[in-house]
Amino acid sequence: MAIIKVRNSGNVVEGHEEVSNFLENQGVLYEHWDMDKLPGHLKEKFSLSDEEKNEILATYKNEIEELAERRGYKAWDVVALSDETPNLEELLKKFEQVHTHTEDEVRAITAGHGIFIVKGNEETGYFDIELEPGDVISVPEGNPHFFTLMEDRQVVAVRLFIETEGWVAHPYQESVSK
Ligand SMILES: [Fe+2]
């Protein structure tokens, strides 16, 4: 389950209900997919063939289609990042700049970990959402955020889009310590 760390206060939010309530108040969708369904050979694999990516999408076909229908997403794919990814450092530097998108940023983690750093309301300020396999989040359209990896430096995630062009990052002029 995801863990939230609020940067200003140092508060930590844990537990499915607490995390769900916190994120709901901030307008961030948070759901969970059953990771027991994922075939064993895909649980710890971070360099994926097209066949393996399709196998992940086929495993969660119902979850993806239900979420897409409910929220208007029209396309999906699988992204994998690890030390085997060429230019990982360069990619992470790009990701670690605060930005916005013209549509939701939707990610369902199927292996590894990732952190979304999201700008919350005035009282809360920026908070980290530490994600593990099964966690599904949607950062709302126009909401400043950035993404980075955790200590394991590897992640596999399903991404859902309204239009693939919607994922273009628009810089948000505010610096946040990494
Ligand atoms: Fe983003």
Plain-language structure description:
The chain has 178 residues and is of the alpha+beta class. The protein has a single domain, classed as Jelly Rolls (Sandwich). It contains 4 helices and 12 strands; from the N terminus they run ββαβααβαββββββββ. The strands form 3 sheets. A 5-stranded antiparallel β-sheet has the order 2-1-8-7-10. The longest helix is centred in the middle third of the chain and has 11 residues, at 61-71. The mean pLDDT is 94.
Mean pLDDT: 94
Overall spatial form: globular
Uncertain runs with pLDDT below 50, 5 residues or more? none
Number of strand segments: 12
Per-chain topology:
Elements (H helix, E strand, L loop, with lengths): L2 E4 L5 E2 L2 H10 L3 E4 L17 H10 L1 H11 L3 E7 L6 H8 L3 E2 L4 E8 L1 E6 L6 E6 L3 E5 L5 E4 L6 E7 L8 E2 L7
Antiparallel strand pairs: 1-2, 1-8, 3-9, 4-11, 5-12, 6-9, 6-11, 7-8, 7-10
The structure holds fe (ii) ion.
